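The data layer described in this paper is built around a simple, fixed record for each protein. Such a record has a labelled line for the sequence and another for the backbone structure tokens. For reference, a complete record is included directly beneath this paragraph.
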Amino acid sequence: MIKSRLCQLIYRCIYLGLAFFGILESFGLLAGQKPSLECMIWYTSLSNFLCFGIMIALVYTTAKHIKYNELYGESNNVGKLKFYSSIAIFVTFIVYNFILVDNMFSEGWNNLGNLTKHIICPLMFVIDGILFDEHHKLTVLDPLKCTILPLIYVAFILIRGAFLNPETYQGTIYPYFFLDVNNLGYFGVFKWVLILVIVFIIIAYLFFFYDKFEKEEGKFSFDLGSIKNN
């Protein structure tokens, strides 16, 4: 863990600047774009908005510590929500780059907005937790709790889609092919959601086990005691 709060503040401010650019692009507020609120139905946008809000809270707390000359230590004032959000945004990175596009280096890099929302900011948010957060705080059930937010999103999209008429509605009904009930049916969507939930859980537990590793006297060990106690 890097305990310098000045280092934390600089890193987090850089993240906020990049994430703010991504938000402007999402709403179509950059030059040559048509402003739109349709981004509010995309998981990518919502997960980036969530992480942006969390980072604002972290920057505030970090700056407050520095103001009172508390220059070293953790500055996490959102608790485990940061872990849940890290998994959510990392899955945004995984799904976009390895499921939604054929080749991340040919399609994911040809648009600065995509680069920011799907690659740079997700990775920066995850790295922030790795570099600046104290470890050994997660319980064995926390990786399972990471599925709550995406399942709420799925429920929202399916309920919304059930009330929209594809023949008259001009906007996007199902933002992702794996949620498109019209093409896959509810059973097909259920299979895809199950696959993605499993991916969520696997990724979350990988982060969980990483959280239990520690280094003492140049040697790595695994903190089994914290798992038992939690």
